[in-house]
Amino acid sequence: MSKRRKALKAVNLEQQRQQLLEDTFEARRRLHESFGRVEPYVFGKIVNPAMMGGPEWPNWRQAHWMIHRTNSTMIISDGLSDACQHSYPENPTGFGFEVYIETKDAADLLNKTISDVIPSWLYQVVDAVSQSCAEYHELLLERLAEHTYLSQEVVLSPNLLPRQYQNPANHTAAVILGIPSPDIPAWFEAPGGRVRLMSVKLISQADLQRMLARPGAGRTELAEQFIKDGSCHFSSIAS
What we know:
With 239 residues, the chain is α+β, with helices and mostly antiparallel strands. The protein has helices at 3-35, 114-117, 121-135, 137-144, 205-212, 217-229, and strands at 37-38, 63-68, 73-78, 97-103, 150-155, 172-177, 187-190, 193-203.
């Protein structure tokens, strides 16, 4: 193939990718609006973390949206399922997932500005998980093929959470990924294919220790306990 034909093919592929990105943005927007009232401004960072050695998202862009629901507030990632800029058309849904956190005890965030919400535990937890999932997305997808639920620990700012939720020694907090929501679908059909919607459940340090005490079974038992007691995927730091 001549250099000219290769160049034209690359241009055509990029045009296709850009159109797919626009269609995907619109599909996610409609999805978010079906959940509740979406804040008009997206959560983004002045400097992309990838420029400072952080994980790169599929289309470079890293963002989150806050959605006010009837009795809860949720923040959801926006960009982990973008068509990959370096490997299109092989990965039309990027990493193939978006992550979200939902709480019933963040009523104080209802009328706050973005600058007020960004320091909040709700945003900081889901942002840390988003970055971790982006960095280790290949391993995460492998584990999701084997397990219903996953867990991880993320490093947060010191004293962001009450001591029962954050290890004071290393500032980490623990979460379980993938506990089903009663009314948020586990998947949605994006223009490029199916995308997983993965919940983030903040758990206490005591729950973390109980989970670690029973390798393999502990995580499933804890997740099923949350489903049974009705707290499901919801996160809370209320005492």
